[in-house]
Design goal:
- The chain folds into two domains: 166 residues, no CATH class; 66 residues, no CATH class.
- It is built from seven helices and nine strands.
- Strands 2-9-3-4-1-5-6-7-8 form a nine-stranded antiparallel β-sheet, sandwiched between helices.
Length: 244
Amino acid sequence: MGNQICGILINSLPREFSEDELDSKKLKTKIIANSISSLSPKDLSITFSDDNTYIFLDQIFYKNISEEDTLTDLESDLVDIFPESKILIVAINDTVDFTGYSLIKNGIKIRTKAVVKDQIFLDYGDIYDIELKMLEQYHRMREGKPRNLTKMRELYPVYSDDKLYVIDRDTAIKFFKNRQHFADELPYFYKDGTSDNLLIEKQIGSFVNSDIYELEKLNWVVFQRRKLNFKKDSLKEYIYLAKK
């Protein structure tokens, strides 16, 4: 079945809420369980551990991220509830070959990227983390003489030079046998999501000291709520109830 993860990790606890910012009707939402068997649960699930907050819900990633520099409604809601925090929104679904994440620090979107079946679906922000190592390797591979980017710009007109170089690295390693040793050195690629998987794994590691699936063993608050429209909904009420 492969990995299926869809949720949000925050390196802090929520701020205090005033009564007038909570919807009294939503405060009556039914709590239906205290455990989960998947990190992509059908019902909204929230828990807290070691001063971190975890919010998991199938599909919460989709339609709630973008490659614009402005925050989405979900991201704005999270920044309001968790000011000055690191927030990682992540979705991995090996069944449909989807990998995506959005990383926010102190209210600023750092990186958003999503790859579906080896095709880049969303891509916002400067190259980051492992991608910088891939860029450095590319320049070594090309011996300081990077490829002319004119033709690549026709395919990726809004991409920075650095992103185009990292994409060119993918092509050079995969199609030229004399460069296979570079893949052995750094077995990650920009377009197939493997570099994103590594970045997500490293970011998750900053929240969870052990395997992320150990989170399933925590005590959870599971709500009878499967869909959220963040143009009108907020996570405030559910976080408030889970924290009580």
